[in-house]
Amino acid sequence: MSDQPLLNISGLRSGYGGETVLQGVDLNITRGEIIAVVGRNGVGKSTLMRTLTGLLKPSAGTIHFQGRDATADGADLRARNGIGYIPQGREVFPELTIRENLMVGEVAGRGRGSPNYDRVYRFFPILKERSRQRAGTLSGGQQQQLAIARAMIGNPGLMLLDEPSEGIQPSIIKDIARNVRTLNSETGVSVLLVEQNLDLIVSLAERGYVMEKGRIVAELGADEIRSRDEVRKYLTI
User: What whole-number distance in Å separates Cα of residue 171 and Cα of residue 46?
Assistant: First the structure.
């Protein structure tokens, strides 16, 4: 793993309308890391993810990705440059088939190699079995698998997972954790995970950041992020 930061965020401020949610966030991710941002509901975690993807424009601070200043880039350019986003609530295209959803994901990967459908289907075989099925008819867990696969197909350097366990049964959560770990191991993709599910955090993350009231207030090393007791105290009300 290289020590060169893949993503470096400094003094990031962002929000909605006149309300500032992120109050100067600093964090970094090196290549190949799996990082979790943990905290109670409403502290700004999803706002952070939306700002990193370009869906929200920062009011201050900088975002450097792969060595270049990406602060002013829009969502389309960030996706083309290698940031894959799996949003909270999945947001698949319900009227499109599974295959058509994956083809949409190909657009972001142009110039970074051919889409690897064999790998996607190896991780998520049900997507191959049901490739002609409309995405809106899938279960919540299957839609989450599709959302991850849609990001994977673009060969991203960084995957942003926003609450991937939300509304998903425990067996599927375990599958997601295993698949993300394997994908990270095989391809070196970095992962930034925003999550409330204790089991997923401790089984997947290698280190973490704690967010409160729009700020990073603590960093968690490998031993801390894998300690259920340590992580739990940042998730409980």
Answer: 24
